[in-house]
Please model this.
Amino acid sequence: MKYQIVNLAISAGGALAATSGEFSILSMNVAGLPEILNGNEVPGDKTSNSQQMGTKFSQYNYDIIHVQEDFNYHAYIYSTDTHPYRTATSGGVPFGSGLNTLANFNWIDFDRVKWATCSDASESDCLTPKGYTFMRAIIDDGVYVDVYNLHADAGTEDGDEAARSSNLKQVADAIDTNSKGNAVLVYGDTNSRYTRTRDGITIFSTQNGMKDPWVELIRGGVVPTVETICTNPSTTNTCETVDKVFYRGSPLLSLAATYWNYESNKFLQANGSILSDHNPITVNFTWSAGSSLRQSSFWGGPHGAWFSDVTTLATKTSPKASVLTFRGAKRLDSVGLTLTDGTTFTHGGTGGDVSSLTLNSGERWTSAQLCQGQKSGETRNFYIKATTSSGRTLSAGTSTSDCATYTAPSGWGIVGFLGQDGDEMDQLAFVYAPQ
Model:
């Protein structure tokens, strides 16, 4: 595994947690459509080819692998792969999306989303529920990256390009909604090229502030204006394929791409034939925890709408909490705090009883206990207890036997929240800042 712990710090739970490291990703369209529908001009038997792909996934041990067109030969890939975390198939044609992830990291959420628009103008893109997937990958304790896998509409007819533009916009809008303030990776089969301007592939840069590491590292920052076609296996990195990667860091986590490559020659049959009609691509990243904002791990269940105070906190200089305000009864209804500059954060519903604590001069909110339980078949936060640097406490809700305590690093304090909410607190984490 290429992931390495470079620097260490005390985590919220008192154990050593990484503050910097590296990881690798791979994107590969595995050509898993049934042979009768598409032979993909790939020699050999698709069953055997799929088993070989799984073997090579394990051999090279990329940390987060996205596959597309993983339809009717999914089981053969998984039978020879050894990654500890893998998404369950959504089915073969015509039931599944063909999108799956194999990883060395776990995640706290996973969602499959179908495209709102598809086109059969030149390909049978409406035959299956193609779309994108979302997960929040756990790189380390309190270190998360939102990871999206996608397979956009194919073809170059007017209807195809309109559908593909809509697909890419759908993902960009989802990033704005679900990944505000977070580090993000988007990669997969975009079926798009920079020279097809109607596709709008630059939307991830213009709308979401992301970089393409191929443009950054291979093209010297210059977006191509003349179409180039890659051979398979590719003999050069400068040619452009429709398989792409986009990334950004956040105030919580710096990300930098350090290596980009077509992995074509690593994914060949014994006789030198290709395993897929797409050139797989890999990128290596380094990461480091934020110097002015960090976060705890999450507690609770993956339900409700995502929220984050990170973007607002990133505009502040040395933010400090002055008033804590919670609501709760049988469960934790809401959490909130007011900063010393008057900025107020509130998340959750309006039920329960209100409890409040005004911090004294020099007093910091240093730790929080959360307890979770089941309500209507979903995991929610039932209880919170805040403890300050002076030993004072504030609580709300009803304690359970399933609890965790999060403590700010030495010299830091809790200044905000991120998580998921509705009428109550579903999933919750805390934002730390130096005090």
In short: DSSP finds six helices and 25 strands in the chain.
